[in-house]
Design a protein that fits this description.
With 182 residues, this protein is an alpha+beta fold. It has six helices and five strands; from the N terminus they run H-H-H-H-H-E-E-E-H-E-E. Strand 2 and strand 3 form a beta hairpin.
């Protein structure tokens, strides 16, 4: 059994324990089990890739992680996983399920955002980059499609960049385009 499958199985065991806790009216324990399950499922999803022999696709794992995040009350984490999964152009049935999940949170209401700053950090485990805008003294965390993260870091690390992004109502910023600043 590979690591992705092992993490997924452990996450599902914890989700089952959360269901039992719900039947016992122990909401604190239920939430705790769902949170733990979410973090394991998210790790499985982010470790999975097209080359894995894992029986579950990365997108199915991401959808599962988003559901677990919602059940755990981790709405911002659910939003991140949903946006990240949609950016990878998953199968249509996954897109539909993610859209149904996101309807309760209105992810469709986004605004355009332009950022100019220096790419100073990257977090592969979160599929995120950090851009520091020295003019306004602001720092932005920007979600990036996992498949593009390595390329972006190689091309733009410690360089001033222009970013076109979308920001949702919860403040999650998602990369649309990145170029070197003139």
């Amino acid at each position: 059994m590979n690591i992705v499958t092992s993490l997924h199985h452990r996450a599902m065991e914890l989700a089952d324990k959360a269901i039992v806790a719900n039947f016992q009216k122990d909401l604190k324990t239920e939430k705790s089990f769902y949170q733990k399950a979410f973090f394991l499922e998210k790790e499985a999803a982010l470790k999975a890739n097209g080359n894995d022999a894992a029986p579950l696709s990365r997108h199915v794992l991401m959808r599962s992680a988003a559901v677990l995040a919602q059940k755990a009350g981790l709405e911002k984490e659910a939003d991140k996983i949903i946006l990240l999964c949609l950016s990878e152009k998953p199968e249509m049935y996954i897109v539909q399920e993610l859209q149904n999940l996101s309807k309760t949170k209105d992810l469709s209401k986004t605004k355009d955002l332009k950022i100019n700053g220096v790419l100073t950090q990257a977090d592969a485990s979160e599929s995120e980059i950090k851009v520091e805008d020295n003019d306004s003294l602001k720092s932005y965390s920007v979600l990036v499609p996992s498949a593009k993260l390595d390329e972006i870091v190689r091309k733009y690390w410690k360089h001033r960049v222009n970013i076109e992004a979308k920001s949702n109502p919860r403040g999650i910023i998602f990369l649309e385009k990145i170029t070197l600043a003139a």
